[in-house]
Design goal:
The longest helix is centred in the N-terminal third of the chain and has 20 residues, at 11-30. This protein is 29% helix and 27% strand. It is α+β, with helices and mostly antiparallel strands and 206 residues long. Strand 4 and strand 5 (107-118) form a beta hairpin.
Length: 206
Amino acid sequence: MHTQFLRDRPREVLQDTLDLERVVLVRRVEDGLLRGSAAVVAMVCVPLLSGCGGGESKREYTVPRALCGVAVERGDLTAFLPAGKNISVTSESGTDWRTCNVVVDDTSVVNLTQFWLEKGRTTAYFARGQTLDDPTESEQGGRFLYSGYEAFGKTKTCVDKKYGQELYTAVQAQGSRHRDTDAMKRLIVAYTKEVEKSAACTTPPK
């Protein structure tokens, strides 16, 4: 009867129904009501929708280990990448900036940026020039600012004495449907540390 009810519902309503049931099931498992029951796995997946069983979309590409010559935390980056067949990375640069664009099946998903600014600025100042949103989460006294889909940071050791500039970083997953503040925090912190160890830290703008 439950399956027939689902078949008769519009697809949007059906998806909402399944999402709600998953939440309920997870909570019941956490409360110990269904722990150890094999029925949980079967109930979570209804074979009427793609995403269950053999019809589930998958990542057929390999997630890059580095972007624009800088290592990235693949586990946290993967969280923001969708299923798809192909992945590519393009880069652009100017006199004081460089950006890497991660594209999955012709859709721009994630952008990573390195940007030189005059000394004395803050991460908040940098972020305001990169996004219309206002990241409310912070780490290390405001050195890192982040939300569920974008983050901004400031390097500690990348300083160009000739031009009096400091290097900032940004990770923006505006093309991703995934939202995860913890993963974004880990990603920007790890990426900024790798930038500090890379040639980008010792190559000031020309």
